[in-house]
Sequence to fold (281 residues):
Amino acid sequence: MSARVLPRGRRVPETGAQSRPTPHRRRAARAPVVVALAPLAVALAIAGGCERTPGAGPEPYRTPTPLDAATTGSIAGYLHVRGTKPPRRHVQVTSDATCAAAHPDGLDVEDVRGDGDMLADAFVWIVRGLEDGVFAVPETPVVVDQRGCVFEPRVVGARAGQRIEFVNSDDTLHNVHGTPAKSSPWNFGLAVRGARRTITVPTAEVPVGVQCDVHPWMRAALGVVDHPYFAVTGLDGAFTLGRVPAGQYTLAAWHPRLGKRQQEIEVAAGATTRVEITFAP
Ligand SMILES: [Cu+2]
Fold:
């Protein structure tokens, strides 16, 4: 055989180097004429399941953890606050004319919110027990708005590696300063209404603090996790985590003012595990 026949009728003159049965990637690197076919070679390598050289390309595809109804259950519950909730804080925002116009009487900040004894603005997530799971990261970004000179929402959940888009909806300069401990910090201005910028936090961490350095009362927190089992409570203090693989877990809840609580739970297939967590100011 004097020439090797490639797909689409392309022929490559055989040489000593090329005739050796090397992997696709090495062959493409050595023969300039084959470089043009590199995308095809890569596609074939992927389709054919070529062995991966360590450190030589993207991570191999990992099969997502199956989440069928026969093997999953759910976790549902409420967060409560025992005792009297702290009073609202009154914040003067007259340092910025736009903020002052939005809040002519100042800004009432309710650090601990919720109907009755319920707790809002808490991040609930599975903190242990999912180490072997593989879960696709959503394509859609999480959006955090700067509106009326506050972050909205002020507690936000996101997946590690998911896009997080910060938007300025005010006619004034805001800044977005993120201070994770396990990922690189970020710090940028959003100068005008409509300005937006997207970041990702590659490593799971709860909480990741976010603040606006222009307006010191503007603070938010991200809960960044590497699985889809998280929620942020609303005024009713309720949360539901669905399609959880049956197993033993540590469930945690974190609140910006009240800190973190956690408890051990078990999820059975086809069942709902009920959880009540109580915080004390
Ligand atoms: Cu600001």
User: Anything to note?
Assistant: The mean pLDDT is 84. The chain is about 10% helix and 40% strand.
